[in-house]
Amino acid sequence: MHQSLTKGCLVGVGTDIVYLPRIAKLLDKYTSNRDRNISRFHKITQKFMHPIELNQLDTLLTEGSSSKTRLTTFIGGVWASKESTYKALSCFVPHDMIPPAKTIYTGLFYKMNAKNGYPTLQFDDKFQESHLANQDFYRDFVKIPQIKPLISIAHDHDYLACFVSLSSYGKAIEK
Amino acid sequence: MLRSIFRTVTPVVSTFRTASSSLAGRRICTRFVTPVRLYSSESVDKNEITTRVIDVIKAFDKTAASKEVSPQTAFHKDLGLDSLDTVELLVAIEEEFDIEIPDKVADELKSVGETVEYIASNPEAH
């Protein structure tokens, strides 16, 4: 069944490219058996992953079958999606109204795979209640304009590229 | 420094001992018990903070070990660190000083000097 196409207005676009061996190096450095290293690895991932993504990462780490490539691609893809989306938001959100990077990365949205395996981005509808200091930002630049994200990721050997677009389906945004 | 604190405390403690020896079954005479406000030790010296931050940077990135790192050193411009490197570096600094850097502050820390200034102003830094 075809989904009807709804007309939206493109308001922001962002991109990022990740050199995957540096993610592999991060994994090697911090996921050895030493407790302190694993603790620091978790602290690093908690700086940019939404709780849903952290759960996905935990599942991959505890599954013995997860290859290092799979883990590297997952972490690299999440990181690239965060950077891309932040840049897309910066296209239309005034600098003084955009929340701190960590707030956006860990609270505003998360990356998931659709049933067909394609990546998707989901805004966390609990953001407004869990981040009271950023209520105005969410109301004015996500909820009222009904911002919808689209994401595309490609990876080839050592590189992963991510593109994010944000479109408004609601009330016009006025800067 | 601890000696200076104890010098202040001693007279109160001796008063307290005198008071406590007669406490059994008796009401405490609060006239002789003076509350003392104790202050934590001085915040970490800025020079020490600078040395420790630079040590963390040099340990973090092998290429930085050979570069001259000073308070003026910028993470991106001088050390070539990208945003993921900076996340990793700030986590290492948080662990070194046993602090948590607020999200908004983390976005603004672009150099060694700015990081040192923040830590120096944080009373919880060790």
Could you provide a short overview of the structure?
Chain B: Carrier of the growing fatty acid chain in fatty acid biosynthesis. The complex is a heterodimer of chains A (175) and B (126). Chain A is an alpha+beta fold and 175 residues long.
Which bin fits the share of residues in helices of chain A? 40-55%
Radius of gyration of chain B: 23 Å
Q: Supply the CATH superfamily name of chain A.
A: 4'-phosphopantetheinyl transferase domain
Number of strands of chain A: 5
Order of helices and strands of chain A: EHHHHHEEHHEE
Low-confidence stretches of chain B: 1-25
**Mean pLDDT level of chain A:** 91
CATH topology of one domain in chain B: Non-ribosomal Peptide Synthetase Peptidyl Carrier Protein, Chain A
Could you state the order of secondary-structure elements of chain B as H and E?
HHHHHH
CATH topology description of chain A: Ribosomal Protein L22, Chain A
Beta percentage of chain B is under 5%
Chain pair forming the biggest interface: A-B, 14 and 14 residues
- Ends apart, CA distance between termini of chain A: 38 Å
Second CATH tier, the architecture of chain A? Alpha-Beta Complex
Helix content of chain B: 55-70%
Give average pLDDT of chain B, whole number.
Answer: 76
Please identify the structural class of chain A as seen in this structure. Answer: alpha+beta
Function (chain B): Carrier of the growing fatty acid chain in fatty acid biosynthesis.
GO molecular function (chain B): acyl binding; acyl carrier activity
Subcellular location (chain B): Mitochondrion
Protein name (chain B): Acyl carrier protein
Give an overview in words.
The complex is a heterodimer of chains A (175) and B (126). Chain A is of the alpha+beta class. Chain A has one domain (9-168): Ribosomal Protein L22, Chain A. In chain A, 45% of the residues lie in helices and 23% in strands. In chain A, the strands form two sheets. A three-stranded antiparallel β-sheet of chain A has the order 1-5-4. Chain A has a two-stranded antiparallel ribbon with strand order 2-3. The longest helix of chain A has 23 residues, at 68-90. The termini of chain A are far apart. Chain B has 126 residues and is mainly alpha-helical. Chain B has a domain at 46-121: Orthogonal Bundle (Non-ribosomal Peptide Synthetase Peptidyl Carrier Protein, Chain A), CATH 1.10.1200. Chain B is built from six helices and no strands. In chain B, helix 2 packs across helix 6. The radius of gyration of chain B is 23 Å and the shape is elongated. In chain B, 20% of the residues are buried. Classes of the chains: A alpha+beta (175), B mainly alpha (126). Chains A and B meet through helix 2 and helix 5 of A and helix 4 and helix 5 of B.
